[in-house]
Amino acid sequence: MSADPYSTAAALHADYVARRLTPSDVNEAQLTRIAERNPRLNAYVRVDAVGSRAAAHASTERYQRGAHFGALDGVPVAIKDNIAVAGLPRPGAVAAYENNTAPADAPIVDKFRKAGAVIVGMTNMDEAAFGSTTESPLYGRCYNPLKRDHTPGGSSGGSGAAVAAGLCAIALGTDTLGSVRIPASYCGIVGFKPSHGAIDVDGVLALSPTLDHVGVLARTVRDATSAFHAIADRALAWKNVAEVDSRFDDGLTLGVLDVSDATAPDVTRSFKTITTLLEKADIKLVTIERDSFDLGRARKAGLLITEAEAALTHEAALKDNPKGFSPLFRDAMAYAQRQPALRIARAYEAMEDARRWAAKQFARCHAILSPTTPHKAFRFDSDAPPNAAHITSFANLAGIPALALPVADGDALPMSIQLAAPFGQDDWLLALGEHIANLLPAPSLERV
């Protein structure tokens, strides 16, 4: 039996248990596929053939002994370039850090290893995770596997492209204002940003410690759930799936965030079709009022916080090696440094506004539903829309979990919807996402 590069982590695990495949078989097939297809996509910036072979061999032996670790054992995963993997460079797509090698695994990478996952390599990203197109001055452009002349989104575009192209089953990304969910939207896959603090960010090159999250990209919600469970910090008192599944049976109310004033016509039409399908499935929909909350203001506040905290994060390197940063990123950090303290304070105040606004909405609904992005992936030769994070950023400011789900709408580029839930209800949101995904048409990823 040959390995299907588009197999889910769950399907691979079943094949391993049944001894139809071995992790070594899958890893070799994965390395071959990456060698063939990555030059056209530039999703990976570094492939660890030696390390992945050793991990796959160890996993194969565990399955042969009937002593595998669990659902992720032997599953090929990719890690974003700003997350530390022991012995490999971790520049975060910043030229100033090009020669930095990680002395140890980030805790989340260590947890992946302990779950038996096979780390295949590191993925492309925007410089320092500041951007939404994955066009790095250090690594070059990453391409969307669904339409190569379109962006995969960013800043975790390499992770999104790798999953969508069948170059790994699961990938880690980071999300400061939407950088996991935007690539998920553009590449037609699942993207999950957990509650703030739910995943340890130690070992991750910071952009904005206040807003940074580590997130998961996968082809199914089930795979995203397995990855989250493997790396989550269970210090938060999350509700488990068994406790909240009955909520779907008792009646589910989704608050629909009306963003039609910001979305492209095709996104607006597709989202209307999706809400109609959900209503036919006996899900109650209520309208979320935005009179007291400005999404655009929240996004701009998040951007200013990001720029200001990035200036602190990179202060020493900027002083020692200013040319190690692109003019665009240097200018963004310099802009924040010129702003008066009162304006910076107001940006942080917008975080509290987002938290209060979200809490008020959850008093009326179980989760907030919206498109993930105002538009689908765009061509490289067109102007990048400035509002890619217009809808995603409020979840970062509020610190709440958010999930991007792909939905087929008849176009080559699928639609994506976002579900956001109250803080700490990560497991419940993932269960909800699987429930919703089963009600809507799933896109088929193009075999690139």
Overall description:
By secondary structure, the chain is of the alpha/beta class. The chain has a domain at 9-231: Amidase signature (AS) enzymes. It contains 16 helices and 13 strands. The chain has helices at 9-17, 23-41, 49-65, 107-114, 157-164, 181-187, 221-231, 241-244, 246-250, 265-280, 295-313, 315-320, 327-338, 341-362, 393-398, 426-437, and strands at residues 44-47, 76-80, 118-123, 135-136, 140-141, 170-175, 190-193, 213-218, 253-257, 284-288, 367-371, 402-407, 415-420. The strands form 2 sheets. The protein has an 11-stranded mixed sheet, with helices on both faces. It has a two-stranded antiparallel sheet with strand order 4-5. Residues 239-246 have low confidence and may be disordered.
List the SSEs and their pairings.
Layout: H1 9-17, H2 23-41, E1 44-47, H3 49-65, E2 76-80, H4 107-114, E3 118-123, E4 135-136, E5 140-141, H5 157-164, E6 170-175, H6 181-187, E7 190-193, E8 213-218, H7 221-231, H8 241-244, H9 246-250, E9 253-257, H10 265-280, E10 284-288, H11 295-313, H12 315-320, H13 327-338, H14 341-362, E11 367-371, H15 393-398, E12 402-407, E13 415-420, H16 426-437
Parallel strand pairs: 2-3, 2-6, 9-10, 9-11
Antiparallel strand pairs: 1-3, 4-5, 6-8, 7-8, 7-12, 11-13, 12-13
